[in-house]
Design brief:
11 strands, about 160 residues, 3 helices, alpha+beta, seven-stranded antiparallel β-sheet, about 25% helix, elongated
Length: about 160
């Protein structure tokens, strides 16, 4: 028994003298930069972004031909192209794109902007991932999108 104990003690002493693994110091944790937030949307480097798990929405906030484009990036293949809609409107929004990236265009006129500024108005995307039989729906508030677009126009000089 003493032989076993002395052998174990010798092994522990040798293990204590051996050099340990190389340790690299991690940088100190820093608070993330304060990004302007407007409802579901944030402004990061003059780009308007919103994230809803499987779907990320993005816009430059620029108007082109009286419309503001919003791009949706999905993280999975779909059974068929998604459908974009704004709550309170009876028709689907135009949508183009392929694979996992689709773009819709929001009209920027007095009537549509007034509707988008109403609390409870959402930009909705319905989609069906390839591995499911259920249709999913995400939504982003439109009021925050418009406020972020105004902010981008002021700050980024557009």
């Amino acid at each position: 028994m003493t032989r076993v104990l002395s052998l174990l003690c010798a092994m522990f002493l040798l293990a204590g003298c051996m050099p340990g693994p190389d340790v690299t110091r991690l940088p100190k944790w820093q608070k993330p930069a304060d990004l302007p937030r407007f409802g579901d949307w944030i402004v990061d480097d003059c780009t308007i972004l919103a994230n809803a798990g499987e779907v990320r929405a993005e816009s430059s906030g620029k108007l082109s031909g009286g419309v503001m484009p919003v791009t949706f990036h999905l993280e999975m293949p779909l059974v068929r192209p998604p459908q974009a809609q704004m709550s309170g409107l009876p028709v689907a929004l135009p949508l183009d794109g392929t694979s996992w990236t689709f773009r819709t265009y929001l009209a920027y006129d007095a009537t549509t902007v007034a509707h988008m500024m109403d609390p409870g108005t959402f930009l909705m995307l319905s989609y069906q991932p390839l591995n499911t039989s259920d249709t999913r729906q995400i939504h982003f508030d439109t009021r925050g999108l418009l406020q972020a677009a105004v902010h981008v126009g002021k700050v980024c000089g557009r």
